[in-house]
Amino acid sequence: MTVNVNPADFTFFEIKQLSPMIGAELSGLKLSGDLPDAAISEIRRALLEFKVVFFRDQHELTAAEHIAFARRFGDLEIHPATPKGQEDPEILRITHDETSKGRENAWHSDVTWRPEPSLGSILRAREVPPFGGDTLFSCMYAAYDGLSPAMKEWVSGLTARHDIARVFAGRLNKSIEELHAQYPVLEHPVVRTHPETGRRALYVNTAFTDQIVGLSKKESDWLLAHLYTFAAVPEHQCRFRWEAGSLAFWDNRACQHYAASDYFPQRRVMERVTIAGDRPFFDPER
Question: How far apart are CA 175 and CA 172, in angstroms?
Answer without folding.
Answer: 8
